[in-house]
Amino acid sequence: MRLIPEATDFNEYLQELDVVDYHHPIIYQKIGEIFENQSSEIEKVKAAFLFVRDKISHSWDIQSTNITCKASEVLTYGEGICYAKANLLAGLLRGAGIPTGFCYQRLMLFHTPEEGYCLHALNGVYLKSLNRWIRLDARGNKSGVQAEFSVNEEILAFSINEKLGEKDYPIIYTAPNKNTMATLNAHTNALDMYMHQLPDAL
Fold this sequence. Notes:
Largest sheet: 4 strands, antiparallel
Mean pLDDT: 96
Oligomer: single chain
Shape: globular
Number of strands: 8
Helix content: 25-40%
Radius of gyration: 16 Å
Low-confidence stretches: none
Number of helices: 6
């Protein structure tokens, strides 16, 4: 699939947002820690991706009721659903001067269409050294889900089955989808929100 940037100005993918608060002291400190021994752009992106994927728990996977949204909150509590984890990865990379956006997929929430659909968030990252965008999914691996860092072929958490109503959206957005952020801010129980309240399309 050909990725389509929403904006042509890379500065749009470096801006600090309320939920991508990379000047927050905890984010600023973590950027220094993660990138201390990484010299190249690709190494930095990989290190940030692996940190968010492996060190920040997906709230559903650990059956936590906590809801996080801002990058600083996700890092502070060490958990979040995909919308929140995408905010953190964007914060770490934007804070290091690497253009990062937001991408989406429409997925079956569980195993069948009858169980409903959800909007899934991942990140688009521009690699200047390769002069192209790649997508990375840091939602966290588990049985049946194995996303990896790759600059050659996408190895995302989920493959799309269009026959079952799933969809890959090609746009790389400069900011998180408003409905996803509103959902995080409107609820207090992550498990109930995940099962019943996630938006299901852009």
